[in-house]
Design brief:
Blueprint: H1 6-13, E1 17-20, H2 40-60, E2 67-68, H3 70-84, H4 95-105, E3 108-118, H5 124-134, H6 136-142, E4 148-155, E5 161-170
Parallel strand pairs: 2-4
Antiparallel strand pairs: 1-3, 3-5, 4-5
Helix pairs in contact: 2-5, 3-4, 5-6
């Protein structure tokens, strides 16, 4: 098994996505259901672990915890699936469409997104969160003025984990 240099990928991206009240036309989202290479319960545990780690980090900065929203998590999962299976390039492609989809069920004032991928680690969720903390743009989302979040993780057949976390401040 090999390890992908997570921070190299984070630095290559140069940050993360953040929008406030976008008003643009966007392409429809890719409507797919994740097919996971890991068992769903393991992935769900990993998603919850990432959610808890981000809230622990927020607590260390005297910030309130984020509430986990299953609809936001589903949109995060769809994006992770698309990246893991080569439907979209690794990154924030299609974020405006995702954000507009989220607006349909959770009107928001601000929204942000962190993505990561890695392979070969015993605790891939911890590696992703630590990478986000070390990246100024991603860390800014983690401590932003948000109140809800969703986490979606997909492991592809190669054993690579793709992470998407969306942060939402509702209206």
């Amino acid at each position: 098994m090999y390890k992908l240099p997570f921070m190299g990928i984070v630095l290559l991206l140069g940050g993360c996505t953040f929008l406030s009240e976008i008003n643009s036309t966007s392409q429809p989202l890719i409507e797919v259901k994740p097919i996971l290479a890991s068992t769903p319960s393991n992935i769900e545990q990993l998603e919850f672990s990432v959610y808890q780690q981000v809230n622990e980090y927020r607590k260390s900065k005297n910030l309130p915890p984020l509430k986990l929203d299953p609809n936001i998590s589903e949109q995060s999962r769809i994006h992770s699936y698309a990246m893991a299976n080569g439907k979209v390039a690794f990154g924030h492609g299609g974020s405006e469409a995702r954000f507009q989809k989220i607006r349909q069920f959770a009107p928001w004032r601000e929204i942000g997104e962190n993505v990561a991928f890695n392979s070969g680690y015993s605790n891939p969720g911890k590696e992703a969160v630590e990478g986000w903390i070390e990246s100024p743009g991603h860390q800014r989302n983690m401590v932003g003025n948000y109140d809800f979040t969703g986490v979606g993780i997909v492991r592809n057949a190669k054993g690579e984990y793709y992470f998407t976390q969306i942060f939402v401040r509702k209206q």
